[in-house]
Design goal:
Length: about 220
């Protein structure tokens, strides 16, 4: 089996090395390089990674700008944003630019490896800490978004249940356990949800859940 190619983009050499060592321990993953933001587009064109781990904050070229350039490529890689903070003001911009996930730099090694595998398989990664702090912080305090409420009105009752848990940052397996469903069934529900919401990935769907007041409503009812 051909290993999944991974590129790490961060302005700090020590961070690139540390993340590279963690990801590179997995036999099915291959770290093909590391660079700062200004070199990222060229490296992606030359090395064709399937997954890019991209720092949000870099001095030469910020992560949002890099993300936009990578998403504009003919065959863009899956990009997960790396951040030191569990609250980051760039969350909304990154979501709209097509980020496939958010990870804290101190994510546990096994969770980081798992996240890369999920990204390589076409999924999105949304760690619970990021879902509950970054995304909640992004929408907290505002009234329910009427557009988001209209979108979620297209969903069935079970799809609303799944979306609410997705908004809390739960994985497919965790959602399946909570709702007593098979993981395959949850995956089918999420595919249907993304289509009905017009969301590119589960990260965007989670934000819609928060904006619609769905996650808060479910928690208040517990």
């Amino acid at each position: 089996m051909t290993p999944t190619r991974v590129l790490i983009v961060d302005d700090e050499v020590l961070v690139r090395s540390g993340l590279g060592l963690i990801v590179g321990t997995a036999p099915d993953l291959e770290v093909v390089g590391g660079c700062s933001g200004g070199q990222a587009e060229r490296m992606v064109r030359e090395l064709a990674p399937r997954v890019v781990l991209l720092d949000v904050r870099m001095p030469d070229l910020d992560g949002i700008s890099v993300l936009r350039r990578l998403r504009a490529l003919p065959e863009p890689p899956a990009v997960a944003m790396l951040t030191t903070f569990d609250t980051d003001e760039h969350i909304g911009t990154a979501l709209r630019a097509g980020a496939a996930g958010f990870l804290l730099k101190d994510t546990a090694p096994e969770q980081l490896v798992h996240a890369v595998r999920v990204l390589a398989a076409g999924g999105s990664v949304l760690s619970p800490s990021v879902a509950r702090t970054v995304i909640s912080g992004y929408v907290e305090g505002g009234a329910a978004d009427t557009t988001a409420a209209t979108l979620t009105g297209r969903l069935t009752g079970r799809e609303l249940d799944v979306l609410a848990l997705l908004g809390e940052g739960l994985s497919n397996a965790e959602i399946a356990d909570r709702l007593f469903l098979g993981t395959g069934t949850v995956k089918d529900h999420i595919s249907a949800i993304l289509g009905k919401l017009g969301a590119a990935n589960r990260v965007q769907a989670a934000v819609i859940a928060h904006r619609a007041g769905l996650v808060r409503d479910r928690r208040d009812g517990e």
